[in-house]
Amino acid sequence: MARGEFESAKEIYDVIPVFTPRPIAQGPYKSNPDKYFLLFEFRSMTGQQPSPDEFATNLVAMHQKGTSPNGKFGFHVTTYPGNLPQATGWEGSWEVFFAKNLRLALDLEVSRKGADPEIDNLVPMLFDKVIPRLLRPLETNGRTVKPCLVHGDLWYGNAGVDAGNNASLIFDACCFYAHHECLFDRSLLCSCGLLTICLDEFGQWRPACNRFGKEYLDAYHKHVEKSAPEEDYYGRLDLYKL
């Protein structure tokens, strides 16, 4: 987990260093190899939310400048939103990568809580009908999805404002290369008590308890158009926020 966060921060810092604290080192304690440390530069924060326009500008830059090293979706190490592993093995298709990660999330849930008849009925429809219907059009009829660097757990608790220069900051990343609208937070327990499984940078912003509201989406889309087919946009967000 420490290595995944460290490598994630390195990727972000290399692309847009003003947007995240500088990662310094990680590894096991010399005195206790079963304990691990993660060291970053200290950045004092104001406790306020970032400005939508400034935050969106940095996020767009990260998505556009952070390109996959091999043109595929994935990451070079396993990353963890919380304590849950993501399936970051490289895939050439966004639909395949998304489905693989959602399957892992559901398998982890069942392994901890046991089978559920309703889930057993719904899951085949989700994978056989819903995901292909909403994600396959992104990669057909001449359309392609560019794998871009995403934070992986971008909710308001993982963002802040630098007290020294009022610049927006993001941290606690679990990166991978994905559709630019997407990132994974598979177990966000919101303050309003809703357990959500979110697999989309913007789907993550849709639950009512998240303070990244419509103004952040609007600010982002001042720079980047919604992916085609645009008429599926809100359907994709519903799929991603589940």
What features would you highlight for this structure?
242 residues; alpha+beta; Aminoglycoside 3'-phosphotransferase, Chain: A, domain 2; two-stranded antiparallel ribbon; 6 helices; 13% strand; globular
What does this 3D model show about the protein?
Helices cover 35% and strands 13% of the residues. It has 242 residues and is of the alpha+beta class. A hairpin with a 5-residue loop joins β7 and β8. The longest helix is centred in the middle third of the chain and has 20 residues, at 94-113. It is globular, with a radius of gyration of 18 Å.
Compact summary:
This protein is 35% helix and 13% strand.
Task: Please write out the topology.
Layout: H1 2-15, E1 23-28, E2 36-40, H2 52-65, H3 94-113, H4 117-135, E3 148-150, E4 159-161, E5 168-170, E6 176-178, E7 185-189, E8 195-198, H5 214-221, H6 233-241
Antiparallel strand pairs: 1-2, 3-6, 4-5, 7-8
Helix pairs in contact: 2-5
* Tally of individual domains: 1
Strand composition percent: 5-15%
The helix count comes to: 6
Number of strands: 8
* CATH topology category name: Aminoglycoside 3'-phosphotransferase, Chain: A, domain 2
- How are the strands of the biggest sheet laid out side by side? 1-2
CATH homologous superfamily - what is it? Aminoglycoside phosphotransferase (APH), C-terminal lobe
- Give the structural class: alpha+beta
CATH class: Alpha Beta
